[in-house]
């Protein structure tokens, strides 16, 4: 039942009409004055809000950047090296707590600094300053995209800088922030500009004594760009620093005025006057442009003075335009409102009828409330009960006995408390949150009620009271309770399962560590007896054995070598899994690395009788910086697999480079026409100890480790490896590795075939395609067989047979491969090995340029005067894979009247000896290089002694030529069956002394003698001694061959400058191991050129470095640089003179 108190009186229509007329007149009279004032106030507030919103966003950006820097400083402050340095500073450079030198702590702190710079690109520089002297103790900075640690010699004193002196006054763990300015080094502004903001933090030792200042420089440009981007296009942003100087301005010329033009600041450029209590009117003194501006300082972070202001501007013309628009809108609405009011006035006559309708509505509303399930209680402004519905009595028993106008005390305490606590808010038009209570009443079960208060509006939407809505939520509350219990049980179960998973993972990790440790240990232990087996095999080979025993020895050696390879693979795998595999970062020649691997597999490819192609035409760089050994290991694995699984067709090794941004990508691909891999087995390839199938393992052998190691090595070098394969059609494997462009050197290949036509005779399309590509690379034009050409290239006997009859008509005939080596019946025939190598191919046309594509040649520094007839009439076979070495040997021996034949490796030597045996040629001696791809010198010697090179050469004198100076090397050569031993670089006197000891002399026939070379007037000896190089000694050593002299000079110019730079760097960094390496290398070159002064000073440096006397090395560095520059200048001048003489001739 709804009970209500009827209040109010009937209002007559005439009274309402009069009131309406008076109201209309009042509105019309006062509207103009009211709205004019409010229009400007509202517009000012609107523009302020727009500017304030942008300012708050900008302020937050500024503060977030500062907060990040503050966290960086607090992080660095708590790192161990800070206190370690402090303790070491107080204890004569040694940390007494950890017995660690000061330099070690500084190095560790430098590593932390470098890691932060790598991780956060917003950091430019991090330093630790000595608080007593201002000297930089550690400094790491970003230069040209690289993070470097500044050398001690370049550390600066910052005691005169403001941020240093201010930081000395700071309490502990208090940060000082500088204004944004342009970074300076040694008093000069860094170009390009580096907007920088510095933050400093004093550091105290364990005795609470100030000992250092941490300083970080941040890149303020990014922060400024973010701040500016917050403003819409209609606004402009100015960032001010100390003394209102410009940090950022839309006009580029005004930016960073404190550093670039101190006379210009905000006040000198703009006239500022108040617009209201929030905004200023700003006028540009030069352009007279006016703006509304909000000027606020950045604030909100406790880092001292932030010394920055943000100025947000809106053109005053925009403000005026908005004001006019708002006036037009307002007065138009006023006119509309007047018309509407007139219409309303016309409708007031229906008001009486509306009152009747209202009574009807009230009756309807009463019925609705009585029928509602929720309880509703009405209260007036004084919180006296005015009404309630029937449902309310079911919630509150006392309500039936309560009179209207009663206060809420008759309700249960929680309900009345809720009304008293929230009624005032509702009467003010505010919303309140509903509340759930548990109600206990006598004679009833406990119930949950939801209480909510809403305003009661009277006429003109004036709040006349409040209404209490009561809803029974007992069922809902019980359901939520059950849900919470279920969630709690589920969370407990998840926690238990998670703990079980963590325990299982820890056990698996521990098992993996034990496995890796076991593999590493047992692999190392297996190497010791295996080395004993291999050594014993070498000793047994020295004894007389039968053919069957020889076969068994070869089987044992093959098995032992295979086992050693497997152990090495297992060791690599265990290192990778244990995270102990280190990747070097040293300069290397990709041409040389890939060519070395290719040549080492050429014998195997010949045995398989497959086409073997090495394509390096896509390499654009002669030097990259990385781990050459690991690159070589990956290429070797892929190439050996391709050759092993290819019975017919071809194997192609290709290498290319591609420049992307600042990275050079090296791509090496191996393509074959072998057995291929079924698609169903592709997922097995890169797994350890996994092959395609057991049949594959049985037929081809192997452990399944190679590709797994390749993948992990490539990924360790930040690259990736991929493959494509189809069963019975072949496979293609390739990997790509990134290298820094800043450390790479480009190849410069001449177009020496420009204007020349070349015809190619090949057996297969794949060979022809590569040859055409090779010809085009060097500027030549390929022509078919029907047209005449300048040059002819043939790759096999069958191919050569097509052109053999007309070979003399070509200017040059290039024969590729060993099977064509016997063809020498024409002066225009040139032989190169297969597969075709870039350096060897280039040497056919430009020997000097070919040298740049090959490893440097090392020769002797001692000169000797020879008669020119020491071995006249003798004939020698020189076996060496390096073309330059072969050329030098030819110059030395032919200069003494000998005849020289060549072989490029051990297998080639065996083949040629068989050919020479048929021709009746007899060699006085064989010079054997020990380290060659394919069959090396030791294997070749044993094969010759066993008669594999022909019975007549079984006892021929074999002289070892090796660059190894290790102890026991000579004994190894002699045990392999060689007769004598000479080291590289070859000392001519030693060489002929060895020949004399072996009773190898000139023949008695005078027809083979040559005339001694005239080395010039000895009266010039005093002048020659004053030169940095004794060229007469060098040319004497080369038997007067000036062509070889030019080649030696070219090698020196090509290679020595980079090695000299490496030597200087290693000495300055006190790196004695590197100093030994580079001084020894350069000393060898000095000896080759008879540069005695340079040789002596480098020899001293090498000796000091071997004894780890870094100070003595540094004291001799200046002398080495002077002597080197003298030699370099002399060589350059002589090369120019020799080229001019050659051109004239």
Automatic annotation (TrEMBL):
PROSITE patterns: HIS_KIN (PS50109), HPT (PS50894), PAC (PS50113), RESPONSE_REGULATORY (PS50110). The modification Phosphohistidine is found at residue 1080. Residues 1041-1145 form the HPt domain. It comes from the Bacteria. The keyword ATP-binding applies. The chain crosses the membrane at residues 16-35, 328-349. Signal peptide: none annotated. Residues 875-999 form the Response regulatory domain. Keywords: ATP-binding, Cell inner membrane, Cell membrane, Coiled coil, Kinase, Membrane, Nucleotide-binding, Phosphoprotein, Transferase, Transmembrane, Transmembrane helix, Two-component regulatory system. It is a multi-pass membrane protein. Residues 521-741 form the Histidine kinase domain. The modification 4-aspartylphosphate is found at residue 929. Its EC number is 2.7.13.3. It catalyses: ATP + protein L-histidine = ADP + protein N-phospho-L-histidine. PANTHER family: HISTIDINE KINASE CONTAINING CHEY-HOMOLOGOUS RECEIVER DOMAIN-RELATED, TWO-COMPONENT HISTIDINE PROTEIN KINASE. This is histidine kinase.
């Amino acid at each position: 039942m709804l009970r209500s108190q009827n209040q109010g009186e009937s209002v007559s229509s005439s009274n309402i009409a009069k009131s309406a007329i008076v109201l209309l007149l009042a509105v019309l009279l006062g509207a103009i004055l009211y709205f004019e004032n409010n229009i400007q106030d509202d517009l000012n507030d609107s523009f302020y809000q727009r500017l304030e919103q942008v300012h708050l966003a900008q302020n937050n950006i500024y503060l977030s950047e500062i907060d990040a820097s503050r966290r960086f400083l607090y992080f660095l402050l708590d790192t161990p090296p800070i206190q370690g340095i402090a303790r070491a500073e107080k204890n004569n450079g040694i940390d007494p707590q950890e017995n660690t030198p000061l330099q070690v702590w500084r190095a560790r702190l430098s590593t932390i600094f470098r890691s932060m710079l790598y991780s956060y690109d917003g950091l430019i520089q991090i330093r630790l300053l000595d608080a007593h002297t201002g000297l930089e103790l550690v400094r790491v900075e970003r230069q040209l995209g690289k993070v470097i640690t500044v050398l001690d010699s370049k550390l600066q004193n910052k005691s005169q800088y403001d941020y240093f002196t201010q930081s000395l006054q700071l309490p502990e763990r208090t940060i000082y922030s500088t204004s944004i300015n342009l970074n300076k080094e040694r008093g000069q502004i860094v170009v390009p500009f580096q907007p920088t903001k510095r933050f400093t933090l004093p550091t105290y030792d364990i005795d609470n004594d100030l000992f250092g200042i941490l300083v970080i420089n941040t890149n303020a440009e990014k922060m400024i760009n973010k701040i500016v981007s917050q403003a819409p296009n209609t606004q402009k942003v100015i960032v001010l620093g100390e003394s209102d100087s410009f940090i950022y301005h839309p006009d580029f010329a005004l930016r960073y005025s404190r550093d670039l033009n101190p006379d210009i600041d905000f006040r000198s450029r703009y006239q500022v006057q108040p617009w209201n209590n929030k905004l200023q009117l700003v006028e540009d003194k030069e352009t007279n442009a006016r703006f509304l501006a909000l000027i606020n300082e950045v604030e909100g972070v406790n880092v001292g003075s932030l010394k920055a202001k943000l100025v947000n501007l809106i053109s005053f013309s925009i403000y005026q335009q908005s004001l006019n628009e708002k006036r037009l809108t307002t007065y138009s609405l006023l006119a509309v409102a007047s018309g509407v009011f007139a219409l309303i006035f016309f409708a007031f006559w229906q008001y009486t009828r509306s009152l009747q309708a209202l009574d009807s509505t009230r009756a309807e509303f009463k019925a609705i409330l009585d029928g509602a399930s929720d309880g509703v209680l009405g209260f007036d402004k004084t919180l006296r009960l005015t009404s309630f519905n029937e449902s309310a009595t079911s919630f509150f028993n006392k309500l039936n006995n309560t009179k209207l106008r009663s206060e809420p005390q008759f309700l249960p305490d929680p309900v009345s408390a809720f009304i008293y606590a929230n009624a005032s808010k509702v009467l003010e038009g505010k919303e309140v949150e509903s509340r759930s209570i548990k109600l206990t009443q006598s004679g009833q079960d406990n119930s949950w009620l939801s209480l909510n208060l809403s305003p009661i509006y009277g006429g003109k939407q004036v709040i006349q009271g409040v209404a209490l809505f009561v809803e029974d939520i007992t069922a809902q509350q019980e359901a939520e309770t059950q849900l919470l219990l279920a969630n709690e049980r589920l969370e407990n179960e998840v926690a238990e399962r998670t703990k079980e998973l963590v325990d299982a993972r820890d056990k698996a990790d521990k098992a993996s560590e034990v496995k890796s440790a076991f593999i590493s240990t047992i692999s190392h232990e297996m190497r010791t007896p295996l080395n004993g087996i291999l050594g014993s095999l070498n000793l047994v080979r020295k004894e007389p054995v039968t053919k069957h025993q020889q076969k068994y020895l070869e089987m044992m050696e093959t098995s032992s070598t295979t086992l050693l390879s497997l152990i090495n693979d297992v060791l690599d795998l265990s290192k990778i899994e244990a995270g102990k595999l280190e990747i070097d970062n040293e300069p290397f020649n990709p041409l040389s690395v890939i060519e070395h691997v290719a040549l080492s597999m050429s014998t195997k490819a010949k045995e398989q009788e497959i086409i073997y192609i090495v394509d390096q035409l896509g390499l654009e760089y002669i030097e990259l910086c990385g781990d050459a050994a690991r690159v070589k290991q990956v290429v070797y694995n892929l190439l050996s697999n391709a050759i092993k699984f290819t019975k017919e067709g071809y194997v192609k090794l290709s290498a290319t480079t591609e420049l992307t941004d600042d990275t050079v990508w090296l791509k090496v691909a191996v393509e074959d026409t072998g057995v291929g891999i079924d698609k169903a087995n592709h997922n097995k390839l890169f797994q350890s100890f996994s092959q395609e199938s057991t049949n594959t393992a049985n037929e081809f052998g192997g452990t399944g480790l190679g590709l797994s190691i390749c993948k992990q090595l490539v990924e360790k070098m930040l690259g990736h490896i991929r493959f494509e394969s189809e069963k019975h059609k072949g496979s293609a494997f390739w990997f790509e590795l990134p290298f820094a462009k800043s450390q790479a050197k480009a190849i410069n290949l001449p177009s020496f075939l420009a204007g020349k036509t070349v015809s190619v005779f090949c057996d297969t399309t794949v060979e022809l395609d590569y040859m055409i590509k090779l010809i085009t690379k060097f500027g030549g034009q390929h022509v078919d067989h029907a047209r005449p050409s300048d040059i002819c290239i043939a790759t096999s006997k069958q191919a050569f047979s097509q052109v053999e009859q007309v070979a003399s008509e070509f200017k040059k005939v290039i024969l590729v491969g060993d099977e064509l080596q016997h063809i020498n019946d024409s002066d225009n025939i040139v032989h190169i090995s297969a597969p075709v190598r870039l350096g060897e191919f280039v040497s056919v046309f430009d020997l000097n340029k070919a040298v740049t594509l090959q490893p440097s040649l090392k020769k002797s520094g001692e000169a000797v005067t020879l008669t020119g007839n020491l071995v006249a009439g003798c004939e020698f076979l020189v076996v060496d894979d390096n073309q330059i070495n072969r050329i030098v040997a030819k110059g030395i021996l032919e200069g003494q009247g000998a005849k020289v034949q060549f072989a490029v490796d051990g297998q080639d030597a065996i083949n040629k000896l068989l050919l020479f045996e048929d021709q009746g040629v007899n060699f006085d001696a064989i010079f054997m290089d020990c380290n060659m791809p394919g069959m090396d010198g030791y294997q070749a010697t044993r094969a010759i002694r066993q008669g594999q090179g022909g019975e007549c050469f079984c006892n021929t004198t074999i002289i070892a030529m090796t660059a190894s100076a290790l102890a026991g090397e000579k004994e190894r050569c002699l045990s392999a069956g060689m007769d004598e031993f000479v080291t590289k670089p070859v000392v001519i006197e030693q060489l002929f002394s060895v020949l004399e000891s072996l009773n190898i002399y000139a023949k008695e026939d005078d027809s083979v003698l040559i005339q001694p070379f005239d080395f010039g007037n000895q009266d010039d000896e005093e002048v020659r001694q004053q030169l940095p190089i004794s060229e007469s000694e060098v040319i004497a050593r080369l038997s007067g061959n000036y062509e070889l002299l030019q080649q030696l000079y070219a090698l020196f110019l090509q290679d020595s400058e980079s090695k000299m730079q490496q030597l200087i760097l290693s000495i300055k960094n006190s790196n004695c191991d590197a100093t030994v390496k580079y001084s020894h290398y350069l000393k060898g070159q000095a000896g080759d050129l008879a540069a005695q002064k340079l040789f002596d000073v480098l020899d001293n440096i090498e000796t000091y470095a071997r004894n780890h006397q870094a100070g003595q090395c540094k004291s001799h560095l200046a002398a080495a640089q002077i002597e080197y520059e003298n030699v370099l200048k002399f060589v350059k001048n002589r090369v120019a003179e020799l080229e001019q003489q050659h051109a004239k001739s």
